[in-house]
Amino acid sequence: MVNKVNKNLKQWTPGEYFWLDRWARQETQAQAAKRWRVSENHYLFVETDREVMGGDKIYPKLTPSPGCLCALARRRHGLGLQKTARLLGTSHVTLLAWERSSDPRLVSAWKRLGYSF
């Protein structure tokens, strides 16, 4: 069976919600687990859609930056940092800088690969 990548970056799985929230805050998984008051293992499983957060947690509304959505595109594309940088014709350092600054060149590159923002 072929795993089809969802290229609509406006639609997130529950795990992607938590990943986007953590990415935007520049937290480690350990820091996010502490903030959500759950174990690190549980948080990892939530972020990878293997468990749900549950409980009476209040989920803040997310408005991810274009750069954050580019990082999500990289995550969904599944190549990792180095291979994605090569695919886009740049270095991994530049790729990370472009993600953090929401560089329009990076947004355009993901759009050319079929991702919608």
Mean pLDDT, rounded to whole units?
93
- Rough outline: elongated
Query: Nearest-angstrom radius of gyration?
Result: 15 Å
Report the oligomer: single chain
- The number of helical segments is 7
SSE arrangement, N to C: HHHHHHH
Report the end-to-end length measured between terminal Cα atoms: 27 Å
Strand content: under 5%
- Helix percentage: 55-70%
Q: How can the largest sheet be summarized?
A: none
Could you give the count of β-strands?
0
Unreliably modeled segments: none
Find the structural class using helix and strand composition.
mainly alpha
What is the element layout, followed by pairings?
Elements: H1 14-25, H2 29-36, H3 40-47, H4 66-77, H5 80-87, H6 92-101, H7 104-112
Helix pairs in contact: 2-3, 4-6, 4-7, 5-6
Kindly describe this structure:
By secondary structure, the chain is mainly alpha-helical. The protein contains seven helices and no strands. The longest helix is centred in the N-terminal third of the chain and has 12 residues. The model has no long low-confidence stretch (mean pLDDT about 95).
State the main characteristics.
single chain, 117 residues, mainly alpha, 7 helices, 0% strand
Brief description of this entry?
The protein has 117 residues and is an all-alpha fold. The protein has seven helices and no strands.
